[in-house]
Specification:
The protein is α/β, with parallel strands linked by helices and 225 residues long. The chain has two domains: 8-134, Rossmann fold (3-Layer(aba) Sandwich); 154-224, Arc Repressor Mutant, subunit A, CATH 1.10.10. The chain contains ten helices and six strands. It has helices at residues 17-28, 45-52, 68-77, 95-104, 116-127, 135-152, 165-175, 180-187, 191-205, 210-224, and strands at residues 8-13, 33-39, 56-59, 85-90, 108-111, 132-133.
């Protein structure tokens, strides 16, 4: 008899009790998700991760003691054996907030008014190593990068210069919003090869996720004109 897969363990971090209650209610109906706890501020996150071992964290940005972006940085510097994927969930979507969250190492950025089904899908994607950003936030992020390139001219050097030609092709496909299967179809690569090229590109560029890779790919296009 086949064993059921382990549910995705989720931790909620938000200083609003009503938000925490709403997220608990939303996640409670999903059989493949398990809420392992919730905390009310960013300074509680590292201890909560050590004791509850979540796979994914839903993290608010604005909290009274330690904000969500600082909490992501604390997680990444805490020497934990496994760092869970963090989805920043907020009512704010300024360019600076989005960029700071992604640079800190967040796996996704969703607005709190995102439909519940999309939040659940984002949790599943993050647990599978696939970062997620709300479509309107991603569009805003790309527009920000494009505008910055137009104002300041193309970057002095190609951000994708360390990559092989095939890794560059994969990075540009990521920037076009394609998933691994679609990238494989476009470039005639197996699913495993796509994942290997993405992993190699992230390592060479010193970045953490596909969203950061997409931003650098857009900058590279500006550089090459």
């Amino acid at each position: 008899m086949n064993e059921l897969p382990e549910p995705i363990r989720v931790l909620i971090v938000d200083d609003d009790p009503l938000v925490r209650a709403g997220l608990r209610l939303m996640l409670g109906g999903e059989t493949d998700l398990a809420l392992v706890g919730d905390v009310s501020d960013g300074d509680e996150v590292v201890d909560a991760v050590r004791t509850r071992q979540p796979h994914v964290i839903l993290m608010d940005v604005r909290m009274s003691r330690v904000d969500g972006i600082s909490a992501v940085r604390l997680l990444r510097s805490a020497g934990l054996p496994v760092v869970p994927a963090v989805i920043v969930l907020t009512t704010f979507r300024t360019d600076a907030t989005v960029l700071d969250a992604l640079r800190a190492g967040a796996a996704g950025f969703l607005l709190k008014h995102t439909p519940p089904a999309e939040i659940v899908a984002a949790i599943r994607a993050a647990a599978d190593g696939r970062p997620t950003v709300s479509s309107d936030v991603l569009r805003q992020l790309i527009d920000h990068v494009t505008a910055a390139g137009e104002e300041g001219g193309p970057p002095e050097s190609d951000p994708l210069a360390p990559l092989t030609d095939r890794e560059r092709d994969v990075a540009l496909a990521v920037a076009d919003g394609l998933g691994n299967a679609e990238i494989g179809e476009r470039l005639y690569l197996s699913h495993g090869s796509v994942k290997a090229h993405i992993s190699s590109a992230l390592g060479k560029l010193g970045i953490d996720n596909r969203i950061q890779l997409a931003v650098l790919a857009h900058e590279s296009r500006s550089h090459r004109g």
